[in-house]
Every structure is written in structure tokens, then in C-alpha cells.
Write a structure and sequence with these properties.
The structure is a single chain. This protein is mainly alpha-helical and about 190 residues long. It has two domains: about 60 residues; about 110 residues, no CATH class. About 70% of the residues lie in helices and about 0% in strands. It is built from nine helices and no strands. Keywords: Membrane, Transmembrane, Transmembrane helix.
Amino acid sequence: PTHGPNVMPLASETDPLLALREKLLAQSARFESSETLVSVARRRGSGARGRPVLRSASFIPAAVSQMRLAMQLDGSQWPEPSERERRTARRLMFALNMAVLWAYHSLLSAQALYELRWPSSHLSFVGTVACTGTMALGQLLLLATGVGARAQFSVRLIGGFLAFAAVGVMLLARPSVLNLVLAFGATGLLNTLT
């Protein structure tokens, strides 16, 4: 009997991770069987235009290995990322920071509110100049001193984001035109760090 009061349920029925692993193993077996179908199709000849049938199927062995890697759901150790993967992650973080510049855009929102609160301050362009000027100065300092190459990426990123939060708290605690301009300058310097 498969069901009843004295029958223990299968592990996959009680543990969702084991059920997912079994599903991925079944998909992996299906990919391996389709790999043999691809080799049979290649041996039979080419398509109508002289190209191999299922030309894009050469990715299947790589897909199988990727699926096997994804099946490590039991808490086993993941492989250490290669240096190429680390460089790619760093470049993507840099691109994300440059594309979003969330701290800068938050300050632009604050600048619009401050212009309404203090119309005689003429803040419409000062924030952008303060941010870009200190950003350029910070890049030159990083290049001249080499601090950017010596500091660990995660330390720079986490430290920079914590400093962004500190600048935001300072601006919320003491709202003034001078603090807003100083926050723009600090954001420019911190963007060079992150």
C-alpha cells in the first residue's frame, strides 16, 4: 500500500526542496535524452539550406551542467566564482550605480522641495554643479592615490552606501540650503567610491 496510517510519506511529499530537486533531475534526464536525439539528427544530414538540423542544440551539454549546478539545493558548497565572473559583477555594479544614481536623484527631489520652501536660494543648478564637481575631483584623487585599486570592492560598496544613508539622515535632521549643497557634494564623492 502506498497510502494509509502506517505508511510514511515520501520525502518529496513533505520537503519542497527535495521535490524541486527531483523535478530538476527529471528535466536533466530529459535534456540528456534530447542530446542523443541531436546527435542522431546531425548524423542524418543537413537542413534545406545546408545548415545542420538543430544547429543551436550545441548548448545542451552546457545547459545540463548548469542544471546540475542549480540542483545543489541540499546546502552543499557552491563553487567559488571565477575572476572573470567577479570582474563582470563589478562592472555591472558600476553600470547600475551610474545608470540609477539613486542618491543623486533623491537629492534632486529634495532640491525641488527646497526651492519651494526657500525660493530666494536659487538652488536650481547649484546641486548639480556641487555633485559633478566633487565627483570629478574624487575620480582624480582615486587615480592619483590608488585608493580605488587597494580597497576591497565590497568594503567600498558597503561603506559608500552606509555613508549615503548617513548623508540622508543628516539632511532629514537639519534641513537647510547649506546642508543640501553639502549633501550633493558628499554624494558626488561617495559615487566615486562606490
